[in-house]
Specification:
Helix content is 42%, strand content 18%. By secondary structure, it is an alpha/beta fold. It folds into two domains: 7-217, Rossmann fold, CATH 3.40.50.10810; 224-427, 3-Layer(aba) Sandwich (Rossmann fold). Strands 3-4-2-5-6-1-9 form a seven-stranded parallel beta sheet, sandwiched between helices.
Length: 450
């Protein structure tokens, strides 16, 4: 029995039926994957390539299976396996976003349709993946891009996505030309701010080549409560942190290590210290771990909780502490095979574990952890898109129970700066999409009046 499409999915389906180059800027859990499958299924002999994050491949397989589609090739594994699978010439083909490195032959296949899921992976004009998909698929008849947050770091994130989709943006065919003509330099040498004219061009592209759907606009939003808990470094670690921040020299209990590298490395080391990690990866402060154990034994006792980490060693130490405290816990991180991660996820979903620990990179997309209504950020990812995607892993559409997000930060630490920056990024990211949405509504009203 075919699943019924909701009103917002029907509207998106109609848009895809009228446009061969289109963007579905629909938030997670709104069914954009199903819309694309239904649309392309109507086209005879439409050989399709779907490029998605590795963690989302399973979701695509599941959706295709639910639609009764079996002619599916999964282009994963080593190069030999990918080449063999590609040679079968199946109608539906799935590949991870890094797969082009192992299988560049996908650029020579005459695809009828190309779908980029979580399309912000091509927002960086310098990245190999961006250059590959923009350069080699200009003539592909049907191209769709899908994401809920297309501009996590600002409006410039949209440029390469529209260049891939339409080959141009405001009559400009190159990212660097667009930046020169439509942006002004910021205070920092790497910063560029889109001018009013540039914003108008981008808004027009969003209005004419995409559909923007948010959960709140279709009555599927869930109330969210965010709570930041600030912990204090012990005196010895506070002194070491300040030294590292000022001189980029790590010194703790008489042991000194000096790095002569870039500011990026300094930032990573500061973040590690906020997690309680030393220069060698050892645990030198367990403040955040004790806070989590106290929460799981107190306020969150018996509740299903997902805990997110940036660094896997932080996850390891927390896993050890929770296990020692007798709290049923499973984990997901990059060192685990895909099958083992899925087994742990199911153990959490089925009730065999109370707590699931995961690095943000492993489970940011395509992972259903909806039995939980609470998430703790041991450390928050710096990118807005990753943050929002991890938030939505515990989302239960239509639930009236508020979702709780607890963010652990340190007084005077860089992790507190990350927390504040994410709130600003969320406001800035939403601004352009809201403007385009308002313009679309105005156009509809004018059409109805006429």
């Amino acid at each position: 029995m075919k699943r019924r499409l909701y009103a917002h999915q029907i509207e998106a389906f109609k848009k895809l039926s009228c446009h061969n180059r289109f963007a579905l800027f629909m938030e997670m859990r709104l069914g954009k994957t199903l819309v694309v499958i239904r649309r392309l299924s109507l086209l005879k002999k439409c050989r399709t390539l779907i490029v998605a994050p590795g963690s989302a491949i399973g979701s695509w397989e599941e959706e295709l299976e639910k639609e009764g589609i079996t002619d599916v090739g999964v282009l994963l594994g080593d190069r030999k396996s990918r080449v063999v699978e590609l040679s079968f010439g199946k109608r539906w083909n799935l590949i991870n976003k890094e797969g082009f490195l192992a299988l560049p032959e996908i650029s020579s296949v005459p695809w009828d349709a190309l779908v980029l899921d979580e399309s912000t992976f091509i927002k960086n004009p310098r990245a190999k993946v961006t250059k590959f998909f923009i350069q080699h698929f200009r003539s592909t008849p049907i191209k769709y891009i899908l994401t809920g947050t297309p501009n996590p770091e600002g409006d410039l994130d949209l440029v390469c996505q529209f260049l891939f989709l339409n080959g141009e943006l405001g009559g400009i065919h190159n990212y660097w030309t667009f930046r020169d003509k439509m942006c002004r330099p910021g205070y920092r040498k790497w910063e560029y701010h889109v001018t009013r004219t540039g914003k108008s061009v981008i808004s027009h592209a969003v209005k004419t080549s995409s559909i923007v759907v948010k959960r709140s606009s279709v009555g599927l939003d869930v109330p969210k409560v965010t709570e930041a808990r600030t912990l204090t470094f012990p005196p010895v670690l506070a002194k070491a942190y300040k030294t590292l921040e000022r001189d980029f020299v790590y010194e703790l209990e008489g042991q000194e290590t000096e790095w002569h590298i870039y500011n990026t490395t300094q930032y990573v080391q500061l973040r590690r210290m906020c997690d309680g990690l030393g220069a060698d990866g050892s645990l030198v402060w367990d403040g955040k771990i004790k806070e989590i154990v106290d929460l799981m034994k107190g306020e969150l006792r018996g509740q299903k909780v997902v805990i997110w980490f940036v660094f896997k060693w932080s996850l390891y130490y927390c896993y050890t502490a929770l296990s020692k405290a007798g709290i049923p816990v499973v984990h997901m991180w990059g060192d685990l095979k895909r099958g083992d991660r899925e087994e742990n996820r199911r153990a959490f979903q089925d009730g065999d574990a109370q707590v699931l620990l995961s690095t943000c990179a492993v489970a940011e997309t395509g992972t259903n952890l909806s039995v939980a209504d609470t998430a703790i950020y041991y450390s928050e990812p710096p990118g807005l898109q990753t943050r929002q995607q991890t938030e939505d892993r515990i989302l239960v559409a239509g639930s009236s129970v508020p979702l709780l997000y607890v963010c652990l930060t340190t007084k005077g630490g860089v992790d507190r700066d990350v927390h504040e920056a994410l709130k600003y990024k969320a406001w800035r990211s939403d601004k352009t999409l809201k403007h385009a949405l308002i313009e679309t509504v105005r156009s509809r009203v004018c059409d109805e009046d006429n």
